[in-house]
Amino acid sequence: MKSMEKKGSALLWRIVFTVMISAVLAVFVTAGVSSATTTGKRVLLLVDADTAGTTALVDALTAAGNTVTRRPAPEYSWTGSDPALADFDCVIHLDGATYYAPLPILSQMMLTDFVRNGGGFIASQWDGYELAIGQQTSMPELVLLRWADGATNNCGGCYITYTAVSGQETHPVLAGVPNSFTFFADGHDAGSQVIFSVSPSIVLMTAPSGGPGVLVREFEKGRVVNFSQAANYSSGMTLQDPNIQLLYINAVKWAGTRTIEVAIDIKPGSYPNCFNNNGFGVIPLAVLGSADFSVRDIDPASVLLESLPIKVVGKNNNLLAHYEDINADGYEDLVLQMQDVDGVFAEGTTSATLTGKLFDSTLITGTDSICIVP
């Protein structure tokens, strides 16, 4: 009887142990799937021609974890609502084969507002060409290079070498891309860089003439990438090049990282929000949740108040952060204790800005009033 009890007990512990291991593995597997899928962006591809290159680009973007909606050609028939921009993080405009017809004026204006409010836009020549000839003039903030002026390599069906600008090799759009590579350009023109008085663009790679090949710009809350190649202008070979595909993948990841406004409350429950900035103690802060925003999506470790980090305690460096409905509106808030650092806020400072990101890499920002006391 005792032998049977021991066997039964051993079997029970084996079952319990197996269930525990399975549960642990399930947690890790679930976490792995989650982290892999939340990095991808929702991409709208405005197609100019249904070539093998277009298909290759869709396949490459999808393999990188993005969700790609391929709007059938021609791109100039897109009205801005078929599909609507609200469902996307980033738009790729292929314009090489349809240089003779601009996007509708309303679509151009909607794209500009999309980027202004945090969206990403990726384009290539001939957007610069259409702007130059007066066809597509309602989205000038999104066109970063001109056409057929300055240092240029104008050609249709030619081999072009892109070379990284010194000091820009580590930009996210160039991640994993060789510092210099040659590809077949269906069409190409490295016209001069458009000069903006506010939020200037940056040249990341140049063409053989020295003109811009890859340019980026941060425009208000959004980001823009332009290429000097004009894919699909002739053969459709450009988008089949692995390095060009990687540039698009990186551009989507960089430009498609949106910034959203969040509501914050510094020193919850008090007003005005006065504190001294002498390097001692903490500054309480709450990021407020709502019906449209779950604070559980925030990566607490990414949060900064200006340059102040969240205070950490204990041997495991635990963050002083918890969830609580601090303003009693029925929605959970993220309550943080920010580590005071001497001298971050000068006397007379009247506001402080929080920055951070969600677990899906979406950037967040929020501002509240403050007053600094001795």
In words, what does this structure look like?
The chain is α/β, with parallel strands linked by helices and about 375 residues long. It has two domains: about 40-255, 3-Layer(aba) Sandwich (Rossmann fold), CATH 3.40.50; about 260-370, Sandwich (Immunoglobulin-like), CATH 2.60.40. Helices cover about 20% and strands about 25% of the residues. It contains five helices and 22 strands. It has helices at about 1-35, 50-65, 105-115, 125-130, 240-255, and strands at about 40-45, 65-70, 90-95, 120-125, 160-165, 180-185, 200-205, 210-220, 220-225, 260, 265, 275, 280-290, 305, 310, 310-315, 320, 320-325, 335-340, 350-355, 365-370, 370. The protein has a nine-stranded mixed sheet with strand order 2-1-3-4-9-8-7-5-6. A five-stranded mixed sheet has the order 10-21-20-14-15, with no helix packed on it. It has a four-stranded antiparallel sheet with strand order 11-13-19-18, with no helix packed on it. A hairpin with a 2-residue loop joins strand 8 (about 210-220) and strand 9. The N and C termini lie far apart (about 80 Å).
The number of domains: 2
CATH-assigned fold name of the largest domain: Rossmann fold
CATH H-level superfamily of the largest domain: Class I glutamine amidotransferase (GATase) domain
Tally of DSSP helical segments: 5
C-alpha Rg (nearest Å): 26 Å
N- and C-termini, Cα separation = 79 Å
Tell me the helix content: 10-25%
Q: Count the beta strands.
A: 22
Order of helices and strands: HEHEEHEHEEEEEHEEEEEEEEEEEEE
* Overall mean pLDDT: 88
**What is the 3D form?**
elongated
CATH top level class name of the largest domain = Alpha Beta
Biggest sheet descriptor: 9 strands, mixed
